[in-house]
Amino acid sequence: MQNALYQIIQKNKSLLERGGKIRVLLNDCFITIFNETDEETSAQKTITLVDTYDYKINRNLSEIIEM
């Protein structure tokens, strides 16, 4: 069985190939996934960045930033 992150990447492969990004919010961090072209081989590779956050606010963006 494949893990959930792998399934998300496979489901959105065409988005990544077009230069899009996938952002996944977890309980304790968020993940950003994108494709990047390797300068040496010109092959595309998938990059996964994991970052934590300092605060969590249970509000919509429009409630804290005037739009």
From TrEMBL:
Name of the protein in its database record: Uncharacterized protein
